[in-house]
Each structure stands twice: as C-alpha cells, then as structure tokens.
Amino acid sequence: MLDAERQSLLRKLPAVDAVLRGPAARLAERHGRAATAAAVREVLEGLRREIASGGSPDVSGEAVAGGAARLLSGRGLRRVVNATGVVLHTNLGRAVLSEHAAEAAVRAATRYSNLEYDLSSGRRGSRYDHAVPLLRQLTGAEDALVVNNCAGATLLALSALAGDGEEGPPEVVVSRGQLIEIGGGFRIPEVLELSGVTLREVGTTNRTRLSDYERALSGRTSAILWVHPSNFEIRGFTEAVGVSELATLGPPVVADLGSGALMPVGGEPLVQTAVREGAELVLFSGDKLLGGPQAGIAVGSARLVRRMRRHPLVRALRADKLCLAALEATLRAYLEGRAEEEIPAQRMLREPAEELEARARRLASSVARAAPGLEVEVVPSVARSGGGTLPGHEIPSRAVRVSGTDPEALAARLRDAEPPVVGWVHEGSLLLDVRTLLPGDEEAVVEALRGAVRG
C-alpha cells in the first residue's frame, strides 16, 4: 500500500466521541461510557497497526463499534460449552463442580460460616481443620492440609522439610525421569530451588533403580521425592522405583501424585494406595480426577503435616471458604458412594459408549432440523481425561460431525455464540464430542449452529 493510501485510511478513522455518540451509544448504555470508550480506543489502535502493516480494514464507525462490542462481550469469565471431548480441559476450567459442591460454595459465599470459629468452645478455630476428617477417612492418613493448589502444596511440603539436613545444606533426592514440567511452566527443579533444598538427581531419564537412590542418601538428605509423571509417559526400555520400595530407605518419601484419583480410572495411582505403601506425604490436586475445586491437598503423617501447617508460607497459600466448602461436599460424595453419579468428571469418564451414541443421534437430528444447510452425521471419536492426567488413556466416544461449509469459519462463529461452543476441526469438518456436554448444552449447541447458519 502506498503511503498516501495509508494516510487516507488513517484520516478516515472516526473519533472516539463520534463512535460513542453514534453506533456505540447502546453499548455505552449497557456497559458504561468509560468501559465502552476504552474498548473503542483499543479497536482504533488495532486498526492503526493494521493500516501501518499494509492492511485495508473497514474503518467505519459501525465497524469500530462492532469491534468494541466483541471486546466487551468477550471479557470476564463466561459459560462455555465444552464439545472437545477433553473432560478436564485446563483452558476451559478443568473439573465442573457437582450440584452439591456448587450449592455448598454458594452457601459459604452468601452466609456467615464457622471458617475460623470453634462452635463447641466459642473461641477462634482454624480453617486448616476443615475437610481433615473426611480426607483421613478416605485416604487412611493421620492428618491432612488443604492449600490453594497442588504446586503450592509441593512448595510448602519441601519448604517445611528444608531444615532436616543434619550435615549441611538439605537435599531432596529425585529421579531424573521425574523432573517434569507441567502446565504454565511449573517445573519440579524450580520448585525445589524455591523451597531452599538442594536437588540430588539420580538415575537416567528412562531408567532409575533402587540402588541409585541408596547411593545418593547422606546425612544431608531431608526427603525422597517421588513424582507421578501425569502429563506424559515413557515407553520401551524403562525402569522405575515405586513408593513402597522407596519407603524402605529411611528418609521420608513425598509422593506428588498430581491427579488426585480416589477411584480407579485408567491405571492412575490412587492416593490411598500411596499412603498405604508408606509415603509420609502425598500431594494431589482438587480439580483434576477428584472432580472438585482448585486445591492442593496434602495427606500423610501427623508429624510432617504439622510442620507444613506451622510454616510461615502456609498463610500465603491458604484455601478460601468457597474452596473448602466445595471440597467438603465433593469428598462426602466419595464417602457416601455417590461420586460416580454425582461428580461430573467421574460421570463423564465412565459414561458407556451406547448411551453416548443415543445422545449423539438425538443431537444430530436436532441440528439437521435447525440448520438444514449443513451436513450432519454421528461418528466415533476419542475423548481424553485432560488436565495433565492419563496421557495415553483413550476413551471411546461419539461426536457429531458437521460439514458442508468452511469448518474454521464455522468454529469461529460458534465461539462467538452465546454461550460460546468449543469443538475442534479435523479433516475438513467440525467435530462436537458429546461426552463432555453437560445437561442443557445440547440445546445451546443447536441454537449456536442455527445462528451460525443464519449469520
């Protein structure tokens, strides 16, 4: 584009006040003048960058107002329909709470509670006592502690153990095959460094033996860290040491399970098994396979949990009342045998393929009636647990395949719907997996597709 053309487009950009008085007037009434003006300025700045790079965008006031409307509607947490087949989709919020857990969180949010009040004595209590009896019953551990996420629980556990080295700087022994990085750049070696302990690597990436750990032990050893590599797997020429073997070596074993499985699923290690095998601390998440709120949970010996509870870092990592209320309700579902039916993540992971087939056919029929211009059929698909769990575990599922139009454009229009619908494009078609659709989502999918065809 010639400089003269660029300058001409730049001069045609409308003033912010002109957009607010004209095409964005209703937006200002709905969202407030300040928020709308900020969105208009953001759109105008984007248009200036596009023009500078040689583009020829629509610079009308209506186009600017439309861009501002999209910005304003897309901000903040919103309900999203998950049609990806990934049950614990990290980008879509991981585990969906059960109705009982959500109700418990609402009660805690809208009423006063005994968060830090002992009703029997009438004196101050501790938030760290909540959920402990339930976790003890479920896992067989002596004590438990809940913080705000599993990374925090790992940091706190290692920090609490940092003073255990008897003959110099404390060391934590860990297999090279378990020095993992999980989502968001969280790396085990960096957490070890932050906690104040020295990392002592043993073995190789694919093979670590008990003798490797034995040779690394010294008077400086404060713990042996066993990490479940929940977001990847190594196949072939491999060897690893389990918790029960490590527990025979003497130093406390800290087992970071990550996923938080309390029920068998896809061969994932169970929390109660790690406790029974001798781990003095077992760390896991609340919002993965457990199916509850975001939380980091530590269960284990009363001695080590007490040290974690007394560490200064615990206040920075503590869980809030909404988390504790939802977690207690989730744990009760396990204790009372209702988890498979009540907790959405557990229900999705276990729903039989024949039930999915029937649901997919009903959805396909509804879509065909609502959007007759599209080609619709039910096809086999593969769902996954997600959330850094069960990396090699494929779950047979069913999806509605939508074709007959540009799949990328259709996927974009569905993401622009209310509520947004998120599927995935594969081999020239849009696929919508029914395993991860919650009650009421089918109707939202149909309306989104109806609107996408009309739009």
Automatic annotation (TrEMBL):
Q: According to the UniProt entry, which residues carry N6-(pyridoxal phosphate)lysine?
A: 288
EC number in record: 2.9.1.1
Catalytic activity as recorded in UniProt = L-seryl-tRNA(Sec) + selenophosphate + H(+) = L-selenocysteinyl-tRNA(Sec) + phosphate
Reading the lineage from the top rank, the first entry is Bacteria
Cofactor(s) needed: pyridoxal 5'-phosphate
Q: Where in the cell is it found?
A: Cytoplasm
Q: Does this entry carry the keyword Transmembrane helix? A: no
Q: Does the keyword Metal-binding apply?
A: no
Top-level EC class as recorded in UniProt: transferase
Q: Which family does it belong to?
A: Belongs to the SelA family.
Describe its function: Converts seryl-tRNA(Sec) to selenocysteinyl-tRNA(Sec) required for selenoprotein biosynthesis.
What is the name listed in the Swiss-Prot or TrEMBL entry for this protein?
Answer: L-seryl-tRNA(Sec) selenium transferase
Q: Which organism is it from?
A: Rubrobacter xylanophilus
Taxonomy of the source species: Bacteria, Bacillati, Actinomycetota, Rubrobacteria, Rubrobacterales
